[in-house]
Fold these 2 entries.
Entry 1:
Amino acid sequence: MSKNPLREGLVTERIPAPCTVVIFGASGDLTKRKLLPALYNLAVSRLLPPGASVVGYARREKSDTQFREEQKANVAQFSRRKPVDEAIWNDFAQGLFYVAGTFEDPKGYAKLKETLDRLDRERGTRGNRLYYLSVPPSEFGVILERLREAGLVSGPDAANFSRVVIEKPFGSDLSTGEALNHKLLSVFDERQVFRIDHYLGKETVQNLLVFRFGNSIFEPIWSREHVDHVQITVSEDIGVEGRGKFYEEAGTTRDVVQNHLLQIMSVMAMEAPVAFDADSVRNEKVKVVRALRPIVTREDVAKHTVRGQYDAGTFNGQAVPGYRQEPDVPSDSRTETYVAIRAHVDSWRWGGVPFYMRAGKRLNKRITEISLHFKKVPHALFAATAGEVEPDVLSIRIQPDEGISLRFMSKVPGPTQTLRPVTMDFRYAGSFGETGPEAYERLLLEAMLGDATLFARNDEVRAAWEWITPMHEAWKELPAPREYAAGSWGPQESDDMLHADGRHWRRL
Ligand code: BG6
């Protein structure tokens, strides 16, 4: 029987080799909310290898028992499966350990090495290590150096594996992004680096690949021949949630557009890969980002981008503060909490098709969606009184209410020739009953397996910074972001940008 790599990659259950996951920054929020609950859920799903171990590394002194108790409370609160299954937890907790140390002190790494060696002997983890750097990027350099000095990194072709997982931000512009890469690649080989973009771990983003390349009817219409334009929205209703300091440096463009939005855009727009493996998929994705038409001059940036910043408003009937009243945000901040971009992918498939992309905080609702807006019918066949023939829209809802809908025109039953748009809907919840695993479960598992398909490669990150950095430069010279009321759909100028092209944002 012929092999279908696409299907195999997504369906086959794979169990990683025994290994230890070392979490730097084990007392942080990510560990508590995402990493430990994800590891526990992998245990519940029986996807962890026998002997799988987790070592938390952080500054404060703590015993293994204390660490286990703390994590149990975290898992009880944040796991998608509740309540915690005592038997599975007890078994999983046998594999949880803690090492106290600072990121600088070589003594901490010596203790870590002792612990890891002991786990290799006692739990059979065979020298396989996955280092998860759940720490600010400013700490990456010293941790990588110390790991190497302590002899804790083996080469990419060694029998045992050493891998490193890092979280965004991967730098803040082209030059800092490059510096970070340089640091990483001076200790690890690219094959050992797993850059997390949790959007790639979302089931719906993966399903986009299946939808496009596991069916034959969509691909032929997935191009400039049929598509008038594409819209991508990553809208959040929450504000900066106490992360004012971080957000001041990031802004929406660095926080969401450079990574999550461009990642889903490249999956949506890429050519079919020759196989479903890390390099084939990422080779195609990076071409899309490279094909983005540069938006460089001040005039172009002013014309093709709109920035906004939320002002006070209401959310769920409650008054909420504006961005500049948030903790740690200066009252004259020019940081954007909203951005809309009119982009073009200069490729054979997409030539002439605008990609309107927007992302922001404190918008009207939480929704991430890609929509393909098809061309108008070429000839008005029905009487003007029949109602307007609206172009068909295929929308892929990444979250929430994950699913895919097709909007098309239909005749209203009855003797008159009246037309109205209707939708054909697929909803995950309806078809599959349960929602899938959390992004971090899938991504941790893939990193343990050594499959980097769902992780960002260095050239993708670089290409994204190449496109984004000139905008940041130009914005410094352009007027401050426009204000928009919290709970609205962003600044009027964003609507105006589409109106100027005779289009409008899809009502979500
Ligand atoms: C993170 C950003 O990467 O993604 C946050 O730093 C944002 O600002 C979050 O809220 C959105 O993720 P999700 O999965 O809730 O859409």
Entry 2:
Amino acid sequence: MDDFIEAGKVVRRVLDRASKEIDVGDKLLEVAEYLEDLIRDMDAEPAFPVNLSLNEVAAHYTPPPDDETEVEPGDVLKVDVGAHVNGAIGDAAITLVFDNELGESLAETARKALKAAIETVEPGVRCKDVGRAIGEVCRERGHKPVIGLTGHQVERWNLHAGVSIPNDDLKGYEQRIEEGMVIAIEPFVTTERGDGDVRPGPTVEIYSVQDPNVRSRVNLRRIWEERDGLPFARRWLDDRPGTRLELGRLSKLGALKAYPELVEAAGEPVAQWEHTVFVTEDGCEVLTGSP
Ligand code: MN
Ligand code: MN
């Protein structure tokens, strides 16, 4: 457990810095590199590229190598950070809002929904019961949960292991939470006009290796040795022409799994809050900070 505790502390420190330091005018590319360097300075490694998803982009946006995007007034910015220590993963997210009343309300709703969800966690509780707490808080506050995204169990070297935690009381999530599980819970919230689901957008910058033995000028075997199955960013690779096309080809072959950005299906803004928790005998411990 020590590695999970340590990874959680790293993520918490990085998000504390992010919430204090990110401001209007900052380039997303510089922010991502800065936060990833903070993780490495704390003797951990990114569990996935820092996700910096703006407004209607709910998740899985990490800056491309030539990204000029800056934080602008009115932006709703999800900062989703993962760190691993010997493969043990901490995963957490906050939403930063730059002068946007609706955005503030969505962010506060995501934070409250996460708190309510965490309070339900104990051995024997079904995943859908945790989801119900999230959905209820969203509706009470006049918003809508994004059910196209879920929380997830975490295991060493495995970011999406075992059970999933839905963001509402959804059919099919009957599995029960067990003592000793490590679980990332992540409410995503959109407006009442939102669709509540996500669709892939045009940007694809995050991949993981599925088969390191496929021949390629991208050194799959080296990435596999460093990352195992954990996701990486295109901007982490040598900047050579044609890399993006090659990553697309490898994804079609099944040698890579691609994680396209995920956009709210009606184009409405989305807020997210996330913690990783450890399930104890009679509740849970938040590994990535205070809820
Ligand atoms: Mn996350
Ligand atoms: Mn997560």
